[in-house]
Amino acid sequence: MIGAPLQQGIPDAVARALTNVGLPPALADPLGSVIVFVLVSIAVYLIGKFSIVPVVGRMLSRRNVDEHARRPILRLTKGAVVFVAVAVAFGLAGFGSFLQSLATIAAAATLAIGFAMQDVIANFVAGVFIYTDKPFRIGDWIEWDGNSGIVEDISLRVTRVRTFDNELLTVPNSQLTDGVIKNPVAKDQLRLKYTFGIGYDDDIDQATEIIIEEAEAHEEILDDPAPSVRLTELGDSSVGLTSRIWIDNPSRSDFVKTRGEYVQAVKERFDEAGIDIPYPNRTIGGGLMLENVDGAVAPAED
């Protein structure tokens, strides 16, 4: 705790200096306290920023704390530095006990803040669950509620996601904990599925062999687990053969690139083998009936 003589001595000294330069005592006293508050808070903040925060950062690095947890811990450390700087400056400026004043203000504003910050508190709690449960990390590709993108930042209130169209989404954390989050890259391997449609007159065994061969020939597709093909549907105009393949260390770019190259290779082999990939056909039938034509007038002849 800061001693009372020190609390009064520094503001009084500054006030006397201001009085000596011509300011009236009624203005010099409050202005002296404000000057002390500003200077002390800045000084304590800078000391903490350039000494405590780097030390915490080095400790986290030595303990191999990943980026998912390092950022919020550093934010909390910086917030603690700001709090200490304000508390020390509050006392040295002669404003009394910062903690007592803060408790009085907090007690008076608890009800109003409780109603006004319901969403903020919900997002804060959701952020805590994200840090503890780790459904995704910074750099992961996630999908939720029809949206998808790469996680760029996770804070205690919001998560920032960069879409694949380079748009930045700021998502309240509660939206990511209340619903279903799909994280395709949470594991080391990702299974891809694609359904190839062939004609009813085409050879299913030949088409299956081509699909498997092209999967085995692609260097990014794993041999273990092995590619597989199953007949999954008999459509109106095609037979559906669903291919299941696996890729290693998945990312969004790998997923799109590998699937595109694989599908193109199968299509080219189908063309060489004369296997048709049909498209839906629609036949429109019917006739035209005319009624009450007895009184129709024939066109006049010249």
Describe this structure in words.
- The protein has eight helices and seven strands.
- The radius of gyration is 35 Å and the shape is elongated.
- The mean pLDDT is 78.
- The protein has three domains: 4-116, no CATH class; 135-178, Roll (SH3 type barrels), CATH 2.30.30; 189-273, Alpha-Beta Plaits (2-Layer Sandwich), CATH 3.30.70.100.
- A hairpin with a 4-residue loop joins β6 and β7 (239-248).
- The protein starts with a helix and ends in a 29-residue tail after the last helix.
- The strands form two sheets. A four-stranded antiparallel beta sheet has the order 1-2-3-4. The protein has a three-stranded antiparallel beta sheet with strand order 5-7-6, with helices on one face.
- With 302 residues, it is α+β, with helices and mostly antiparallel strands.
- α1 (4-20) crosses α2 and α7 packs across α8.
**From the alpha-carbon coordinates, what is the Rg to the nearest angstrom?**
35 Å
How much strand? Answer: 15-25%
End-to-end distance, in Å?
A: 118 Å
The poorly predicted ranges are none
List the helices and strands and how they pair.
Elements: H1 4-20, H2 25-62, H3 67-92, H4 98-116, H5 118-133, E1 141-144, E2 147-154, E3 158-162, E4 168-172, H6 173-178, E5 189-198, H7 204-217, E6 228-234, E7 239-248, H8 252-273
Helix pairs in contact: 1-2, 2-3, 7-8
Features:
three-stranded antiparallel β-sheet, SH3 type barrels, Alpha-Beta Plaits, single chain, four-stranded antiparallel β-sheet, 8 helices, 302 residues
Short summary:
The protein is α+β, with helices and mostly antiparallel strands and 302 residues long. The chain is built from eight helices and seven strands, in the order αααααββββαβαββα. It has helices at 4-20, 25-62, 67-92, 98-116, 118-133, 173-178, 204-217, 252-273, and strands spanning 141-144, 147-154, 158-162, 168-172, 189-198, 228-234, 239-248.
